[in-house]
Structures are given as structure tokens and as C-alpha cells.
Amino acid sequence: MSINQAFKALSDPTRRTILDLLKERDLTAGEIADHFQMTKPSISHHLSLLKQAELVSDERKGQHIYYSLNTTVFQDLLKWIASFQ
């Protein structure tokens, strides 16, 4: 995990909203796109950056790819932040 990549990914409000959606349940890219007024390629770009930062993972189920939170990375980020107390 790169802390720089994680914070860069978290700096964008669209990506933070995607993470909020994934807190509820795993979603496909199409289900995520339904919550935004932007093109599906734009959503794919945001998902790609979240995957590169290892904040989300994806899994193919049949014809669909489901995205889910990678809570391990969030725990690592929190540990790093807590080390400054």
C-alpha cells in the first residue's frame, strides 16, 4: 500500500462518495454510475484509481464485476495516523 496513492485517491469528492456507497454493500460499476451524473468511463477512471490505491477490490461474478471496500488498507491508514498522537 502506498500512503501517497491512498491520500491522492481520497482527495477527490467523487471517489469518497464511491467509498461511502461501498460501505453499504458491494456494487457493480453500473450500480455505482447510477448515483452520478457523469459518463461510465469517468466512473471507471475513478474506480481504477481506487483500485490502484488498494482502497477497493473487484471480483467477477458471472458477467458482472463487483467492487468492494478493502478495509485492511483503511485500518493501515488509521494506524499510521494514530502513530502521531
From TrEMBL:
Q: Which organism is it from?
A: Paenibacillus algorifonticola
Keyword presence, Transcription: yes
Which NCBIfam families did the record assign?
A: HTH_metalloreg, repress_SdpR
Return the InterPro entries for the record: ArsR-like_HTH (IPR011991), HTH_ArsR_DNA-bd_dom (IPR001845), HTH_MetalResp_TranReg (IPR051081), SdpR-like_repress (IPR047796), WH-like_DNA-bd_sf (IPR036388), WH_DNA-bd_sf (IPR036390)
Q: Which domain of life is it from?
A: Bacteria
Protein name per its UniProtKB record = Regulatory protein, arsR family
Q: Which UniProt keywords apply?
A: DNA-binding, Transcription, Transcription regulation
Domain HTH arsR-type residue range list = 1-85
A Gene Ontology molecular function term of the record = DNA binding
